């Protein structure tokens, strides 16, 4: 039973990574996992609960690179966050779609909360930590929409490192 659930989540992760959030549906995930279109409902009563499980996988992947980077400093953490957003834009979008994920069965904040506390520790106070995260996250989102290119600005790892580094103590 657990193997089928894991296959469904893995199939959903593949779809998000290959085609983006908009391509994920119960039938698409079932087809990718090689199960009947009704099988996902045994494990995920709603699309939101499936998306939440897919997002939990993405958050775990981000945590594996972000948590060690935070120990090296806020700029290193910001660069890893940027790299994840660049490498996996569909997953990056999904893990921050709280309108879809809140109340859907996964406790993603149990993982993301420690990230914020680590940023607070690195920069010294919650307001500065929130401003740092918002700055880096905003640059990741803007870069994904190609806005900087359209106005002749380059956003890359060096920009991310400088922005985040400006918040360090």
Task: Provide structural commentary.
The model has no long low-confidence stretch (mean pLDDT 89). The chain starts with a helix and ends with a helix. Helix 1 (2-19) crosses helix 6 (89-95), helix 4 (47-72) packs antiparallel against helix 5 and helix 8 crosses helix 9 (126-144). The chain contains eleven helices and no strands. It has 169 residues and is mostly helical. Helix content is 76%, strand content 0%.
At a glance:
By secondary structure, this protein is mainly alpha-helical. Helix content is 76%, strand content 0%. It has eleven helices and no strands.
Summarize the SSE layout with pairings:
Elements (H helix, E strand, L loop, with lengths): L1 H18 L6 H8 L6 H4 L3 H26 L1 H14 L1 H7 L2 H4 L7 H15 L2 H19 L2 H4 L6 H9 L4
Helix pairs in contact: 1-2, 1-4, 1-6, 4-5, 4-6, 4-8, 5-6, 5-9, 5-11, 8-9
């Amino acid at each position: 039973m657990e193997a089928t659930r894991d296959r469904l989540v893995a199939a959903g992760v593949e779809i998000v990574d290959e085609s983006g959030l908009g391509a994920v549906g119960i039938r698409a995930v079932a087809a990718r996992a090689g199960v009947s279109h009704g099988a996902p409902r045994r494990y995920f009563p709603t699309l939101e609960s499936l998306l939440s499980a897919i997002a939990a996988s993405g958050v775990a992947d981000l945590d594996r690179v972000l948590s060690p980077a935070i120990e090296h400093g806020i700029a290193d953490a910001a660069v890893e966050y940027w790299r994840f957003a660049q490498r996996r834009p569909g997953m990056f979008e999904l893990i921050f779609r709280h309108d879809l994920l809140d109340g859907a069965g996964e406790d993603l904040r149990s993982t993301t909360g420690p990230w914020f506390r680590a940023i607070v520790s690195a920069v010294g106070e919650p307001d500065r930590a929130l401003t740092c995260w918002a700055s880096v996250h905003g640059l990741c989102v803007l870069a994904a929409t190609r806005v900087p290119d359209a106005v002749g600005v380059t956003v890359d790892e060096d920009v991310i490192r400088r922005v985040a580094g400006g918040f360090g103590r």
